[in-house]
Amino acid sequence: MFITKYKKIFLFLSTILIIVSVIFIFTFGLKPGIDFKGGALLEVSYAGGRPEISLLEDAIKTLNINQAIIQPTAENDYLIKTRDLSEPEHQMLSKSLSLEGKYPVLEKSFTSIGPSVGSELKRKAIISIIMVILAIILFITYAFRKVSRPVSSWKYGVITIVTLLHDIIIPTGIFALLSHYTGAEVDTLFVLALLTILGLSVHDKIVVFDRIRENLKDGERKDFAQTVGISTSQTIVRSINITLTIIFVLVPLYLFGPETTKNFALILTIGLFFGIYSSLFFASPLLILAEEWQRKK
């Protein structure tokens, strides 16, 4: 099986991807959205055609709202992000967007989140990710508790966590690069995408590991690396088909869906791609490497 034959190449490639992603994260950083830092989000639509962004920026400057980010959506819509607004400020902003009645405007939605609520959401998001990772470790260790040879059951759990970190670090690094050049912000949908990646990715890894466990029980005296290679080849088509089915749904959501879900669809698609890659080309080589180290002791 080529996966076991070229395991060092796959391990090297995954390591490079993780290092580059971490560099992107620390170099460019992640911009928190209004969900985490507080602020207001206003979505408006212009029935007769929307004005230029520069005109809206000039109108908003007169309101002393400080910085406002204006993003075009759909054909005649805009998303406007500002600091947290009081109701009088909200009304003044909505009125100013018509440019003194020259562009009739319809307010489609308005969301305001205070700084304290944003901080609380950030704390809960971090706790959610940590709790999911801990739950996965406990579940993998329990599920493979009867597998002790040639690799201890707890090592399956450790390898799963290493590969799951791979699956969320790389999309986060790509998002940091995207954020630097497009201004994309981290919101609750971004956290939801990471949690979804964790759930779907661990499912793929359990399928591969479970096949390895079953093949170890068949009683044949095969080399462990050979068993891992055979097991991976038996699951590769199933894993790829399931992942592609989900990606086929996410691509139209990214291309034709609302602006607010585009980043969610993009990060989830990237995460699923690297999730299936790590299940087949990263987790399996790590398992072989763990067996080789254990055998040398």
UniProtKB/TrEMBL annotation:
InterPro entries: SecD/SecF_arch_bac, SecD/SecF_bac, SecD/SecF_CS, SecD_SecF_C, SecF_bac, SSD
Keyword vocabulary terms for this entry: Cell inner membrane, Cell membrane, Membrane, Protein transport, Translocation, Transmembrane, Transmembrane helix, Transport
Gene name of the encoded protein: secF
Record protein name field: Protein-export membrane protein SecF
Description of how the protein assembles with itself and partners: Forms a complex with SecD. Part of the essential Sec protein translocation apparatus which comprises SecA, SecYEG and auxiliary proteins SecDF. Other proteins may also be involved.
Cellular component, GO, one term: plasma membrane
Residue ranges annotated for the SSD domain, each copy included: 125-289
Record field: transmembrane: 9-30, 125-144, 156-177, 189-208, 240-257, 263-290
Physiological role: Part of the Sec protein translocase complex. Interacts with the SecYEG preprotein conducting channel. SecDF uses the proton motive force (PMF) to complete protein translocation after the ATP-dependent function of SecA.
Membrane topology: Multi-pass membrane protein
A GO molecular-function descriptor: protein-transporting ATPase activity
Location in the cell: Cell membrane
The family this protein is said to belong to: Belongs to the SecD/SecF family. SecF subfamily.
Protein's GO biological process: intracellular protein transmembrane transport; protein targeting; protein transport by the Sec complex
